[in-house]
TrEMBL record:
This is Fe2OG dioxygenase domain-containing protein. GO terms for molecular function: dioxygenase activity; iron ion binding; L-ascorbic acid binding; oxidoreductase activity, acting on paired donors, with incorporation or reduction of molecular oxygen. It comes from the Eukaryota. The keyword Zinc does not apply. Keywords: Dioxygenase, Iron, Metal-binding, Oxidoreductase, Vitamin C. InterPro entries: Oxoglu/Fe-dep_dioxygenase_dom, Pro_4_hyd_alph. Residues 243-342 form the Fe2OG dioxygenase domain. One of its GO terms (cellular component) is nucleoplasm. The keyword Iron applies. Its cofactor is L-ascorbate.
Length: 390
């Protein structure tokens, strides 16, 4: 079965420093050391400092604007009070030293690609491109997020299987507007003969919404609405530290993608919301959470779940929860997908071997080891008791 649902343009983890400048020209080791020594971050953050936002500089910065806001608390005192442009330049210099040249080239190419689309694409519903919560979400969802307690969130959710949460989320008028915007995107792509990047390696149809200027709105969706839920229900997979996303729509139908193979997502937490329209089939099927080591292991009976989509209703689950979609047998189904990621969790995961806090197979192996240990201890005690009695 296929489990390679990774996104081709996935942001790789930062690698060790290379002795080269921003143009790929080799410099001496002593020069590289001097460059690093003049641009250093503090080991401990200034927790009282409120970082600036760099979102409006997204087209000029070479890295994700959120990264600059995260790093700002680590700036030395002489820089942290400087102008935003000075801080951005200081942090850019550091990041460029630690970023592989190949990754920088790919990032710049994607930035150029995105800028070309945004410059030429005419938005149909401009109100979609900023977060208007009261117009986007149903009142019950907004109320639960505002109260921000496990009790309030569970009151609007169903949990048909452990770790899979479903709840009403999007208002019908928002779904309609986004569907119209998606159709507008498809028409523009067709009229201009523009080749666009598809959402992932498995979907041949669909569009990356971030590339069409919806990234800021989707980032607010992750930060203000998905992260509070994930902090409560998915802390063990980085739910408290979600800091980036990949937002896209997928389209299923007889003349589109028909189904979706068994896979895991390149995400820590996945939001999947059906936008419509009228369709038959297309059920999601879930088969348990797995780490990389156990991704192809057998499914246990208690891990089997089939879910039928309802427009406006969301499904939230761990990205490592194995799943797929059955064939859409009639009509057309379009879903909004938001892959939410945590760079902190991904870095920590490199040093871990036991994922029994969330991987179903790791849990079973750990439980089996404990049972064997208990049995061996009992056997040893009984043996000693028998020897004492004799």
């Amino acid at each position: 079965m296929s489990v390679d649902g990774s996104f081709d343009r996935r942001r790789e983890q930062t690698q060790a420093i290379t002795a080269a400048n921003g143009n790929g020209v080799l410099v001496s080791t002593s020069t590289a050391t001097a460059m690093v020594s003049t641009h250093r971050l503090k080991l401990n953050p200034n927790t009282e400092h409120k970082p600036d936002s760099y979102e409006d500089l997204s087209l000029t910065l070479k890295f994700n604007p959120l990264l600059f806001s995260c790093l700002e608390r680590y700036l030395p005192p002489s820089i942290i009070s400087a102008s935003r442009d000075s801080k951005a330049q200081f942090m850019s210099d550091i990041l460029l030293k630690y970023s592989p040249e190949g990754e920088r080239i790919r990032a710049q190419r994607h930035k150029d690609y995105k800028q070309k689309i945004i410059t030429n694409y005419q938005q149909r519903h401009k109100e979609l491109y900023s977060m208007h919560a009261t117009n986007f979400f149903v009142p019950s969802f907004l109320k639960a997020i505002h109260e921000n307690t496990e009790e309030s969130l569970r009151s609007i959710m169903a949990e048909p299987a452990p770790g899979i949460f479903t709840f009403d989320m999007l208002q019908p008028q928002f779904c309609d507007m986004l569907l119209e915007e998606v159709e507008h995107i498809y028409k523009w792509v067709c009229d201009t003969n523009c080749k666009i990047m598809r959402p992932n390696t498995m979907n041949k149809f669909g569009a990356v919404l971030d590339d069409f200027g919806l990234d800021n709105m989707l980032d607010k969706l992750m930060e203000d609405f998905i992260r509070p839920i994930s902090k409560i229900f998915f802390p063990e997979v980085g739910g408290t530290t979600l800091d980036s996303h990949h937002g896209f729509v997928v389209q299923y139908g007889l003349d589109k993608d028909v189904d979706l193979g068994f896979h895991v997502d390149d995400a820590e937490v996945t939001l999947n919301v059906c936008l419509g329209t009228e369709f038959s089939g297309g059920e999601l099927f879930f088969r348990g959470v797995r780490c990389e080591k156990h991704v192809n292991t057998e499914t246990q009976a208690e891990e089997i779940l089939d879910y039928s989509h309802v427009p406006g209703r969301a499904v939230l689950h761990r990205g490592r929860h194995r799943h797929g979609a059955r064939a859409t047998t009639n009509g057309k189904r379009i879903n909004l997908i938001l892959w939410c990621r945590s760079s902190v969790f991904r870095e920590l995961k490199k040093y871990q071997k036991d994922f029994s806090s969330w991987c179903g197979e790791c849990q079973r192996e750990k439980k089996e080891r404990q049972q064997l240990s208990i049995s061996a201890t009992k056997e040893e005690l009984l043996k000693k008791d028998g020897e004492s009695a004799s």
